[in-house]
Amino acid sequence: xxxxxxxxxxxxxxxxxxxxxxxxxxxxxxxxxxxxxxxxxxxxxxxxxxxxxxxxxxxxxxxxxxxxxxxxxxxxxxxxxxxxxxxxxxxxxxxxxxxxxxxxxxxxxxxxxxxxxxxxxxxxxxxxxxxxxxxxxxxx
Length: 140
Hints:
By secondary structure, this protein is an alpha+beta fold. The chain has a single domain, classed as Immunoglobulin-like, CATH 2.60.40.1220. It is 17% helix and 31% strand. The chain contains two helices and eight strands; from the N terminus they run H-H-E-E-E-E-E-E-E-E. It has helices at 2-20, 29-33, and strands spanning 46-50, 55-58, 64-68, 81-84, 90-95, 98-103, 112-117, 133-139. Strands 1-3-6-5 form a four-stranded antiparallel β-sheet, with no helix packed on it. The longest helix is centred in the N-terminal third of the chain and has 19 residues, at 2-20. It is rod-shaped. The relative contact order is 0.20.
């Protein structure tokens, strides 16, 4: 008989404790995972360039770096970057938010080059530039 009393008391204690547990709150997983996705803006545009727009005295063999506000869909770069006036071919690619381009031969001294990103370049979030976007620099 004493055993049954103990079991009933234990049973009552356990079930009354369960009722007092707080309701689960929303998971922090979304907060912890989202910063790993590289989207720094609601719009997709150029954040910065090297050389900077309007720079002068740029090396004849520059590494051109374009940082975007969102991660880039690499396949959208294929024919969507141009250089004028007539530049040597540009090689390179993208990694996350960065496009890196290198001329295959030296640029011409004292020329202002314009790099244009076509409006069809796309972020991994599905946004496009929407308009052709350019920046220029002048070589030594």
